[in-house]
């Protein structure tokens, strides 16, 4: 953990979820990132932040890789408890699985594979198959993301 990140674990104020919701809905990227880090920190210590699911899904529609990784971590954790809202993320998963950046594609495919919600699985099979076909038929090693 980075030494400056400990501040995310120290807040126990009332109304902080409403505050985080407002910060997640802002258009400023840095404000959103800080809010997502606070939410992930609260999730890590066992606080129920599933009420922020719609706002977190909105945040995943970004080109910032750090923010996208944090939101995907949240989705993996809460998709099972909020399956009716997890469907909101399907279009972004599909779009990200077709991204030109191999890191974004790999992140999307990995996250789709980690979400164990029956209603979502049927939507994610086609994008997963298309992504896997592209990887298998590709002859350019620069297109691969290899996790060593």
Q: Can you offer a commentary on this structure?
A:
With 148 residues, the protein is mostly helical. It is built from eight helices and no strands. It has helices at residues 16-25, 29-44, 53-59, 65-78, 83-86, 90-96, 102-114, 118-137. Helix 2 (29-44) runs parallel beside helix 4, helix 3 packs antiparallel against helix 4 (65-78) and helix 4 runs parallel beside helix 7. The mean pLDDT is 82.
Summarize the structure.
This protein is mostly helical. The chain has helices at 16-25, 29-44, 53-59, 65-78, 83-86, 90-96, 102-114, 118-137. Helix 2 runs parallel beside helix 4 (65-78), helix 3 (53-59) packs antiparallel against helix 4 (65-78) and helix 4 runs parallel beside helix 7 (102-114).
Name the features.
148 residues; mainly alpha
Largest sheet: none
Class based on secondary structure composition and strand pairing: mainly alpha
Mean pLDDT metric: 82
Which range does the strand content fall in? under 5%
Silhouette? globular
- Terminus-to-terminus distance: 22 Å
According to DSSP, the number of beta strands is 0
Question: What is this structure's SSE topology?
Answer:
Elements: H1 16-25, H2 29-44, H3 53-59, H4 65-78, H5 83-86, H6 90-96, H7 102-114, H8 118-137
